[in-house]
Write a structure and sequence with these properties.
- The complex is a heterodimer of chains A (112) and B (117).
- Helix content of chain A is 0%, strand content 48%.
- Chain A has 112 residues and is mostly beta strands.
- The relative contact order of chain A is 0.34.
- By secondary structure, chain B is mainly β.
- In chain B, strands 2, 4, 5, 6, 9, 10 and 11 form a seven-stranded mixed beta sheet that branches. A four-stranded antiparallel beta sheet of chain B has the order 1-3-8-7, with no helix packed on it.
- Chain B is globular, with a radius of gyration of 13 Å.
- Classes of the chains: A mainly beta (112), B mainly beta (117).
- Chains A and B meet through strand 5 and strand 10 of A and strand 5 and strand 10 of B.
């Protein structure tokens, strides 16, 4: 199975400051169809996961534009330009290029 | 509005069985792959199984192969997960999710499964 490794696992951030989460995969996430299937999810306390980004950099409807995704091959990043209080939660990357889909360990974002 | 509502989670003894259901609404159910994912207490997310639009292709994570069966009824807009020979390690919140662009664009609220004697 493809191993997804996130860093950091804990991310204390001051309100209004930027934040960045790294995700690395043990294999390339470029699928045979030419697409790169890397997604980012946010899980707020007590809630189900919510997708933020798909195919590396495509933001889902309703997701604030302070969230952005980038990367290629095996190395990916989620950036939050200015952290707000509602961003507290755990962030997961997930690869959908190879079955079974696999998730990173999660990065817990908290406000300093 | 897309909605996925899981049900069927319960406390069950090791070796027992359980059937989870997911009622979908707000979209053309037969037009999407669907899947089950789980999250053990205090732990991360894990893929369990997925099923093609017509129900004729099914994929499983190795740890549940031979024990779990995913199925769907497109006439009822419903997804199912039959879980047999349950183990303590299967204890988790089970989520139903819609697959889109090899990702999960909508999730249900989850249903808890506890395997314990």
């Amino acid at each position: 199975d493809v191993v997804m490794t996130q860093s950091p696992l804990s991310l204390p951030v001051t309100l209004g400051q930027p934040a960045s989460i790294s995700c690395r995969s043990s294999q390339s996430l470029v699928n045979s169809d030419g697409n790169t299937y890397l997604s980012w999810f946010q899980q707020r306390p007590g809630q189900s996961p919510r997708r933020l980004i798909y195919k590396v950099s495509n933001r889902d409807s309703g997701v604030p534009d302070r969230f952005s995704g980038s990367g290629s091959g095996t190395d990916f990043t989620l950036k939050i330009s200015r952290v707000e209080a509602e961003d507290v939660g755990v962030y997961y990357c997930m690869q959908g290029a190879h079955w079974p889909f696999t998730f990173g360990q999660g990065t817990k974002l908290e406000i300093k | 509005e897309v909605q996925l509502v899981e049900s069927g989670g319960d406390l069950v003894q090791p070796g027992g069985s359980l059937r989870l259901s997911c009622a979908a609404s707000g979209f053309t159910f037969s037009g999407y792959w669907m899947g089950w994912f789980r999250q053990a207490p205090g732990r991360g997310l894990e893929c369990v199984a997925s099923v093609r639009r017509d129900g004729n292709e099914k994929l499983y994570v190795d740890s549940v192969k031979g024990r779990f069966t995913i199925s769907r009824d497109n006439a009822k807009d419903s997804l199912y997960l039959q879980m047999n020979s349950l183990r303590a390690g299967d204890s988790a919140v089970y989520y139903c999710a819609r697959l889109d662009w090899n990702s999960l664009d909508y999730w249900g609220q989850g249903t808890p499964v506890t395997v314990s004697s």
